[in-house]
Amino acid sequence: MGSSSMWMRLMLPALLVAAMEAPVAATLTLTPGCVDRCGNVSIPYPFGIGKDGGNDCFRKGFEISCVNNSVPVMAGTGTSPNLRVLNLSLSPHPMVRVMLPVAWQCFNATGTQIGTFDGGVGVNPEGVYRLSSDLNQLFILGCNTFAYIESGVSPPGSRYNYQVYTGCVAYANDAGRPQDDACNGVGCCSVGIPPGLTDNVVNFRNTPTWSHADQEFCPCDYAFIVDKGYYNFKKDDLLHMDVNRTSMPMSLDWAIRENGSLTCAAAASSPGYACKSVHSECFNSKNGPGYICNCTKGYEGNPYVVNGCTDIDECARPENYSCRGECKNIDGDYKCDCRAGYTSPNPYTESCNPKFPLPAQISIGVVGGILLLAFLSFVIIIRKERRMRHELYRKNGGPTLEKASIIKLFKKNDLTQILKSSNIIGKGGFGEVYKGLVDGVPVAVKKPISGNHMESSQFANEVIIQSKVIHKNIVRLIGCCLEVDTPMLVYEFISQGSMDDILHGGEKKPLGLDARINILAEAAQGLAYMHSQANTVILHGDVKPANILLDDKFVPKISDFGISRLIARDNEHAASIIGDRTYMDPVYMQSGLLTAKSDVYSFGVVILELISRKKATHRDNNTLVNSFLENHKKGKKSTELFDTEIAEGAEDLLQNLAELAIKCLELEVDQRPTMTEVAEQLVAFTRTHQV
Ligand SMILES: *[C@@H]1O[C@H](CO)[C@@H](O)[C@H](O)[C@H]1NC(C)=O
Ligand SMILES: *[C@@H]1O[C@H](CO)[C@@H](O)[C@H](O)[C@H]1NC(C)=O
Ligand SMILES: *[C@@H]1O[C@H](CO)[C@@H](O)[C@H](O)[C@H]1NC(C)=O
Ligand SMILES: *[C@@H]1O[C@H](CO)[C@@H](O)[C@H](O)[C@H]1NC(C)=O
Ligand SMILES: *[C@@H]1O[C@H](CO)[C@@H](O)[C@H](O)[C@H]1NC(C)=O
Ligand SMILES: *[C@@H]1O[C@H](CO)[C@@H](O)[C@H](O)[C@H]1NC(C)=O
Ligand SMILES: *[C@@H]1O[C@H](CO)[C@@H](O)[C@H](O)[C@H]1NC(C)=O
Ligand SMILES: *[C@@H]1O[C@H](CO)[C@@H](O)[C@H](O)[C@H]1NC(C)=O
């Protein structure tokens, strides 16, 4: 998923414009100052860590502590085996995965209990959780063992003491009976979890009926709740389970359950109503009382914060929102139509075909014998195809490129092996990217959908620029194929995907401080190189994390030159302003005059994203950039914005980086440093840091 989105962005301008509104990560905190992750786990509100400006970042009952700045645990749970959080999610189901310790008891040969732990960790300090009945299972291991879990004290006068019970019996006569992978009552039993369970404390039955004397082959009993499908019974576990180190992943359902656990109907008019976003809706909880919130159809994000649900750009995700024609995003929905001259019974699912005049088809059928016609068509098609290929080759500038350029011109047949659907690594409404090998070298082939013509001037731009710049921090264009309707481009394959994916992708990868400074320094060198070309200054025009790819050693490579300009030729003025507004120089936006300092501005935003690991987006008034600028104006350090993964002990360096970024963001263009100066400064930081 991560790398496919990067390859989509590597594709040409048409796609770029559509992808401008990149999907907002579903992680949103209460205020921008609240930390949005701990270690690998993103922490969306109502969950939260600590305070921002004196106010809690979490809703009551949803506090997370970030131990050692890297391990999230549920605040208020048992102290010594504190409940570690693996994952939090708001949608599609409100859920928390935690690591639960195993409950156990052990006996000596005469059947005296020599140790026990009931598994209790206070899983539910504020009552917001239910042990998920859909996702979990209770396992009990032992050879003469009955154990169960109960929860929810019944009102006086009820038939049973508790409202919910679950448990089972595990039994085995001798060591030979239990079998691996068979949790069928022999040495191991397993049972489902009823809805409403609030606790995991295990009761082992220890009456004489359940004696453990003479059971050296099975000295301990174990009991745990675990995600379905995670645990597989092994008979050795009866002897060797290391209870002090074993814990099991378990899923908890959560809901808003304060003040007598209101339903949606009652909560909507109460002061603490949790569904804050305009585009959110309320559902009564399915496991226990209370309610949950969801973004409405066509929106995604965080329904629990104001403006948290944002429009989904369906057109940027063709794998989930089909459209075989031209896709247009609208607020909360999208439209799909065939372009002029084409038709389809349902452009959402069926392809658009040209509107052939019917009479022509009929007359052909009447005149020709079918066989003859087929034969003739065959011959004609073959000749036409050959002629067309040649014509396209000429039209797309083949002869010129042949003479002038050092890139390779591929024949259509050279690439047919690669252009198979199993090789697709990225796909958008505007075309596909394939991964393949050319002469043993991994490459990425961009193939725009035919009929969706890239402007020929932009194509030429990309080819000419790319063949001029050869630098280790710029993605290398290996060649192109012109014998097709819409020319295809062949690039070196960059393994790690884009900086954007690495920073904000679904599964955020750790990225150390050294690596980050190095990425910035080298990316700046790549851009500085472009800006300082001898004869023609090359401007990128769309510098952003999605256009900085990283190879397997995290060396950055600038990509996507579809809207770059050779200013010596183009006289600087853009006919229309394209690019990503989040990173766009406001001066350029106003004047339409692209300068080297516009790239410097965009790079400033890139620096801020890399040191904060927060996504800049113009749709929230560019909170990220503004937060840094405000701190700067007040003469305050921006410590609270730094990514906690790298901040420790490096605040001064990060502050220096932030200051450099702020210089790049100056509205007075002349005050901004040049790209070369930025690169030099960053290289200096690399040195000082590593010494
Ligand atoms: C982050 O996740 C990776 C892979 O899932 C894991 O190996 C690593 O230990 C995790 N890091 C932290 C700090 O939890
Ligand atoms: C936090 O760090 C301390 C010292 O390095 C270590 O003893 C402790 O186990 C860590 N806690 C967690 C939850 O990783
Ligand atoms: C966390 O949960 C989300 C949503 O259910 C899922 O996509 C993601 O893979 C999970 N991550 C981990 C590390 O389990
Ligand atoms: C909430 O939204 C998600 C994604 O749109 C959907 O999968 C889920 O079923 C919704 N939940 C409810 C309770 O409707
Ligand atoms: C088991 O423990 C009991 C109580 O400490 C003791 O009396 C008995 O001798 C022990 N049995 C063995 C076999 O160690
Ligand atoms: C588990 O820890 C307890 C106390 O911390 C210790 O007495 C016991 O021997 C340990 N058990 C194992 C199997 O390591
Ligand atoms: C619960 O009640 C308290 C006091 O009446 C009120 O301040 C709070 O906002 C209420 N919370 C919700 C979720 O209604
Ligand atoms: C979106 O598409 C991806 C890739 O085909 C798929 O894995 C995922 O489940 C889809 N999501 C939804 C909500 O349909």
The chain-level structural class is alpha+beta
Main sheet overview: 6 strands, mixed
Major sheet strand order? 27-31-32-30-29-28
- What is the total number of structural domains? 4
Strand content: 15-25%
How confident overall, as mean pLDDT?
82
- The number of E-state strands comes to 36
How would you describe the overall organization of this protein?
By secondary structure, the protein is α+β, with helices and mostly antiparallel strands. Helix content is 27%, strand content 24%. The chain contains 19 helices and 36 strands. Strands 27-31-32-30-29-28 form a six-stranded mixed beta sheet. A five-stranded antiparallel beta sheet has the order 10-9-17-12-15. Helix 12 (513-531) runs antiparallel to helix 15 and helix 18 (651-664) runs antiparallel to helix 19. It is globular and about 95 Å long. The model is unreliable at 1-26, 359-369 and 566-575 (pLDDT under 50). One 2-acetamido-2-deoxy-beta-D-glucopyranose binds next to loops. The chain crosses the membrane at residues 362-382. Its main location: membrane.
Q: Short description, anyone?
A:
Keywords: ATP-binding, Disulfide bond, EGF-like domain, Glycoprotein, Kinase, Membrane, Nucleotide-binding, Repeat, Serine/threonine-protein kinase, Signal, Transferase, Transmembrane, Transmembrane helix. By secondary structure, this protein is an alpha+beta fold.
